[in-house]
Amino acid sequence: MADGREDPAVFTSTSLPSDPRLLATVTNAYIGTRVYRDILHVNGVYNGAVGDTHRADIPSPLNVKMTVPGMDRLAETFTLNTRTGTFSHVLQSADYTATHQIYAHHSLVHLMAFSITIRRSACTSQPITVQLQTPFVLKSQDLDLYQGPDFQGAHYVYGKTRVPEVEGGPQPTVHMLWTPVPQVVTLCGEEQERSWEFLIAVAESEEEAKRSFGEGLASIAAGSLHSSHTRAWAALWQGSCVDLDGPLPLRQAIYGCLYYLLSAIPPQGNPGFPFQGISPGGLSNGTRGEDYWGHVFWDQDTWMFPNILLFYPEAARAFLEYRIRTLEGALHNAQEQGYKGAKFPWESAATGREVCPEDIYGAQEIHITGDVLMAFEQYYYTTQDQKLFREAGGWKLVHAVAQYWCSRMVWSEEEQCYHIRGVMPPDEYHYQVDNSVYTNALAQRSLSFAADIARDFLIPVPEEWVECAKKVKVPFDADKKYHPEYDGYSPGEPVKQADVVLLGFPLMHPMSPEVRRNDLEMYERVTELNGPAMTWSMFAVGWLELKEVQRAQSQLKKCFSNITEPFKIWVENSDGSGAVNFLTGMGGFLQAVLFGYTGFRITKTSLRFNPSCPDDVNKLKVTGISYFGNKLKFTITKEEIRIKVTESPLDPPALPLEAVLEESGQRFPLCEGRSISFPTVAGWIQRSPTEAH
């Protein structure tokens, strides 16, 4: 799917952005930083009490820059290769090439590394010296650091966070080992090429830090450290790729979004640490005063999660396990506000207690609780993983959320329905409103899912759940045939971001195409143009649903003003303000492709498809879609859909599948290794009624 000869997954520039926030990030699920930044962060390690809690800054030995005297005479490039998860800086003269590679190891998550390689390109025998600028200062505003004895040639430091999130809460200790960095490295006269490798190991125990460092040293000795990292990335891309025959900027945007999101997820198999969620700007950000202090919002559950779920349900499960581990905090939040059950915090860190610095959001933006449960619902209907619910705490969470919604509702005698009063909807321009349509529809969906899963597990369904789901008010204007954002909303009032349009997707709230169109038109013209980046993706999905492809594209094009050059880092708002490396916006953009262009919808019994590709996209290939344990590849053109089961594991056994076409009812068994094809029409994938392939 070439568009010229430029690789859409490799971003190269002859200079760095002037704003250091826009530098490429190198992260895995456990540790992360921006290149040339003096601090790094560890997943789940926060310092500070409640509203002040933020990612703990750890001094970064990875902050090294390569220079040589007379650099202005050299060709210089900076490259982020998303295929290999590696950032490189190259200096080239007629006589030699010097390459600096930086990466956070994807599968050995406690390791970051960099290498310097000098290679002669001419028949000279002069020594070649490269200088390494290392502005490393061993201090932190968040940890009391102590130096320990060197270990296997590495320096060693450890320190405990200074202030717990809540009294008696966790105060993790961070242990770090790193290879000392010399001021210069020299290729001697008789040498053609030489590499110097530098290793950093970070963990929350001395034992794990030393074990990881030792493993890294052994890999360096075997010449396999970087190659094992690139193999892990190759496997990631093999299992999750979206490519299309279309415009280069669109392809680059997709690769960039996938790279930054995939960087943040736990590796396949046992990650070896409890995953603590993803903040809007990821591990490369989150110090005090940036990226909302590294807190976890609905951004994770609503905007990032669905993309990860479609490709890597095992990693998606880790997101849900974070919410289960912080359930005690959510129970405390509800009790503190006088309600039953669990109220998830608007901003979450290590404990699940509310850590938003401004009380109004934690008190009123309660849709977060339904957002969390919708992620559990999508996971359940994609995987049928009952163990998470029966044995790993999922059912307790579902039950607690249903309890919360019932206790949050009040009966209106006048309207003969339940109200949810005094909330802030996703549109944060408005607060203390009654019956936010998004919040109430989400509460209804939470209760319906809780009842469905109880029935699946043969647990009696509380009558209250059924009654509240049936009778909660979901505002609708029957005259204008649209959904008011809340009670008393006047058409034309400005809106901060996607809100009512989320009823159509991801909520899939029942409505006619006419109402869907009216909602889109009503809110498109009043939504803040420079608002959060994920907004226009959701308008695009709505228009694609209605087969208004050009209108969808005009919305999606607005997202490109949030993508910065040269490394495709997203900013939250198009004026550059807000969170940077804005994974939320990337998640929304990917959903516009993954759920918009394909028409994928996760329902109780099927994975639906109904493609709508823009005119300039001739072919769309989505590799690695996971459904009931199978891996599927979709190839979509204007004329044809081709589906292939690429993997159907036996242990545990994947459920046999079939494709069904909506209009004709035609059925196609899906068997591993075989492709089926049919004209581009709507249909769905479902469990085959037969138990054999």
From TrEMBL:
EC number: 3.2.1.107
Keyword set includes Hydrolase: yes
Residue ranges annotated for the Glycoside hydrolase family 65 central catalytic domain, each copy included: 285-490
Record key words, sorted: Glycosidase, Hydrolase
Listed SUPFAM superfamilies: Six-hairpin glycosidases
Keyword Chaperone in record: no
GO BP, sorted A to Z: carbohydrate metabolic process
Reactions mediated catalytically: (5R)-5-O-[alpha-D-glucosyl-(1->2)-beta-D-galactosyl]-5-hydroxy-L-lysyl-[collagen] + H2O = (5R)-5-O-(beta-D-galactosyl)-5-hydroxy-L-lysyl-[collagen] + D-glucose
Molecular function terms from GO: protein-glucosylgalactosylhydroxylysine glucosidase activity
Cellular component terms per the entry's GO annotation: cytosol
Domain Glycoside hydrolase family 65 C-terminal residue range list: 601-647
Domain of life: Eukaryota
Family statement: Belongs to the glycosyl hydrolase 65 family.
Function: Catalyzes the hydrolysis of glucose from the disaccharide unit linked to hydroxylysine residues of collagen and collagen-like proteins.
The protein's name: Protein-glucosylgalactosylhydroxylysine glucosidase
Record organism: Chauna torquata
Gene giving rise to this polypeptide: Pgghg
